[in-house]
Design goal:
The complex is a heterodimer.
Chain A lengths: L3 E4 L2 E5 L4 E7 L5 E7 L5 E6 L3 E5 L2 E6 L4 E6 L8 E8 L8 E2 L3 E6 L1
Parallel strand pairs in A: 2-11
Antiparallel strand pairs in A: 1-3, 3-8, 4-5, 4-9, 6-7, 7-8, 9-10, 9-11
Chain B lengths: L3 E4 L2 E4 L5 E7 L5 E8 L3 E10 L2 E4 L6 E3 L9 E3 L8 E8 L10 E2 L3 E5 L1
Parallel strand pairs in B: 2-11
Antiparallel strand pairs in B: 1-3, 3-8, 4-5, 4-9, 5-6, 7-8, 9-10, 9-11
The chains are: A mainly beta, B mainly beta.
């Protein structure tokens, strides 16, 4: 199956700062999603982005499928952005094996 | 209410006992998944299902059994619980993995402790 690596593993920001989280894949995935796990443990889908760029408010994501990586940008960070960010990917010829990375734990300080 | 529901939210069981974690979704999504989350390991796929009566192993299937006789339900059974299966278990569903309008939705998780 595919391998998913996320970096950095941990990140501490001051409120208002910008950040970039990276996700590398061992193969060109057909499904790529970003998730946020809040401090209460809930997992929320942020983007479905196997290629291209998407934006949602202060968050945006870019996937370069041919280079096998995706980036999640957080601008003007807020304390509510704290939590763990996960990326996950799947290959069409491997059925529904949606594999997650280890996550980036983000802490935004006021 | 529409959505994906896991039960129980918390469970304590003893080593060697059989325990079943329930997952129910109201969207009639085709795909359903079980993940476990442990410190330092992120989310690891246990089993998934592409449709009723179709299931397949994920990354860490040993010690677990699944079934999917109905589209909306995807129970996960630990046949003989071990301490290493102490974890938080998440169920998730998606209509299709291959279209942008079908993101993955998660339940709130079941925290299982095996003593």
């Amino acid at each position: 199956g595919i391998q998913v690596e996320q970096s950095p593993p941990d990140l501490i920001l001051q409120e208002g700062a910008n950040s970039t989280l990276r996700c590398n894949f061992s193969d060109s995935v057909n499904n790529l999603q970003w998730f946020h796990q809040n401090p209460w443990g809930q997992l929320i889908n942020l983007f479905y982005i196997p290629s291209g760029t998407k934006q949602n408010g202060r968050l945006s994501a870019t996937t370069v499928a041919t280079e096998r990586y995706s980036l999640l940008y957080i601008s003007s960070s807020q304390t509510t952005d704290s939590g763990v960010y996960f990326c996950a990917g799947a290959l069409y010829n491997q059925g529904g094996k949606l594999i997650f990375g280890q996550g980036t734990e983000l802490s935004v300080k006021p | 209410d529409a959505g994906i529901t896991q039960s129980p939210r918390y469970k304590i069981t003893e080593t060697g006992r059989q325990v079943t974690l329930m997952c129910h979704q109201t969207w009639s999504h085709s795909y359903m998944f079980w993940y476990r989350q442990d410190l330092g390991h992120g989310l690891r796929l246990i089993y998934y299902s592409a449709a009723a009566d179709i299931t397949d192993k994920g990354e860490v299937p040993d010690g677990y059994v699944v079934s999917r006789s109905k589209t909306e339900n995807f129970p996960l059974t630990l046949e003989s619980a071990t301490r290493s299966q102490t974890s938080v278990y998440f169920c998730a569903s998606s209509e299709s993995l291959w279209s942008s309008g079908s993101p993955l939705h998660f339940g709130n998780g079941t925290r299982l402790t095996v003593t």
